[in-house]
Write a structure and sequence with these properties.
The complex is a heterodimer of chains A (about 80) and B (about 250).
Chain A lengths: L1 E15 L2 E9 L2 E3 L3 E10 L2 E9 L5 E7 L4 E8 L2
Antiparallel strand pairs in A: 1-2, 1-7, 2-3, 4-5, 5-6, 6-7
Chain B lengths: L6 E6 L2 H9 L8 E4 L8 E4 L14 H7 L4 E4 L2 H18 L3 E5 L2 E5 L6 H16 L3 E6 L3 H6 L8 E3 L33 H7 L10 E5 L2 E5 L17 H4 L2
Parallel strand pairs in B: 2-4, 7-8
Antiparallel strand pairs in B: 1-6, 1-7, 2-3, 5-6, 9-10
């Protein structure tokens, strides 16, 4: 089941080897650690790039995060429940 | 070295569904059905190969797909995601040759005329795509655009088929039921029983130039339209690169 969320979240990310990767995110006062990035892709909203990440935690759900370069804001787009 | 033109048709396998499986590893090896939102209405946009044995394929109503495959994974279409991977594929094709015609979001023609060993080149291309994107493609090779377009469909997924006459057992000698886009079997005099189902599927009517059909005749692959050998190589149109397509 897919749950559309569309809420801003706080993300700790690493910038290494020319790559951006979310490491930890906090949503509704809950912290999701040990993120493993399954895939990433990007698109543009006007001149601004949006980078998407599908990430998994040790739990079974898959979370779709988006980093918007217009305001440097992270958003939890949707959750793919197991 | 093959005389004349060498054209590749490269078709990403179940592209939308494969991208969904790539971006959600939990879906790997599972029947995935891509459709619009809401997930109960409309028609199926794409189905993974795991879903196809159940009769689920692009174009059927979602409600029917749910009946055929109640335990399937129904996911919404995500066009920006598919465009991203399509662009990545395109960048790989452009490393192979600048003569690339983007035929659709997941299909291209590559003009590799003059290539010393097209078969090895195709194998390398398939490996590179798998390594860099995680996707698989099926490649057809032929002397024009129509033959590889047909050939790439014959051995999916992850296939490699050529359509050069008399080039050995790896070609499409055993091809006895072809799909000729935009043409019906009766329009080009295809022998009875050959490819009728596929021809009907494309519907249409007599359209376009003389079709090129590949079928087995006396144990040898034959290129050309049965009943008319005037244009044995079919579509002679060039691979239209982006530059050529600009007004």
């Amino acid at each position: 089941m897919i749950e559309e969320i569309g809420e801003n979240v706080t993300v700790l990310a690493s910038f290494a080897d020319g790559r951006l990767q979310p490491v930890v995110f906090k949503w509704r006062n809950r912290i999701y650690r040990q993120l493993s990035v399954a895939s990433s892709w990007s698109d543009y909203e006007g001149q601004y790039k949006r980078v998407y990440f599908s990430v998994m935690t040790d739990r079974s759900n898959l979370y779709e995060l988006c980093f918007h370069t217009r305001n440097f804001q992270w958003c939890l787009v949707r959750i793919h429940h197991d | 070295m093959i005389e004349g033109r060498v054209i590749f048709h490269v078709d990403a396998d179940a592209f939308f569904a494969s991208v969904e499986q790539l971006t959600d590893p939990r879906l790997k090896g599972k029947p995935v059905v891509v459709c619009g939102l809401p997930l109960e209405h409309g028609v199926v946009t794409a189905a993974s190969y795991e879903a196809r044995p159940y009769g689920v394929e692009a174009g059927i109503p979602v409600a029917l797909a749910r009946k055929l495959l109640p335990d399937g994974y129904f996911v919404p279409v995500n066009i920006p995601k598919y465009l991203f991977f399509s662009t990545r594929l395109l960048s790989i094709y452009l490393q192979v040759t600048p003569r690339v015609e983007a035929y659709s979001v997941d299909e291209v023609f590559l003009d590799l005329t003059g290539e010393a060993d097209p078969w090895c080149r195709a194998v390398d291309l398939k490996r590179q795509i798998a390594r860099e994107t995680g996707l698989t493609v099926s490649v057809g090779i032929g002397p024009n655009k129509l033959v590889p377009k047909i050939a790439s469909d014959l051995d999916k997924p992850d296939g490699l088929t050529h359509g050069f006459a008399g080039t050995g057992p790896t070609g499409i000698r055993a091809f006895t039921g072809g799909t000729v886009p935009g043409n019906r079997a009766e329009d080009c005099g295809v022998p009875e029983g050959i490819g009728d189902r596929h021809f009907r599927r494309f519907g249409g009517g007599a359209s376009g130039p003389i079709a090129t059909v590949v079928w087995e005749e006396r144990g040898e692959a034959v290129l050309g339209c049965p009943g008319s050998r005037r244009n044995p190589c079919g579509d002679a149109g060039p691979v239209a690169t982006a530059e050529k397509q600009r007004p």
